[in-house]
């Protein structure tokens, strides 16, 4: 687990965009983050079709997601609006 980046519990499924939105906290800053369904399926090794399983899959790979967010922050891979897209 990365202590510099904390992924909040405010995640929610955006079915129209096929992604989960969540907030990462870094140095007192809140960063809007998004992970695409296909990436989450790849990371979890599951085929995901309903919101409950999607959220459970996110939780099962939360620490890996924190690491990905940390890498993107270190490399300053922010979208023009300041968000991170995984």
Automatic annotation (TrEMBL):
Protein name: DUF1488 domain-containing protein
InterPro entries: DUF1488, Shew3726-like_sf
SUPFAM superfamilies, sorted: Shew3726-like (SSF160272)
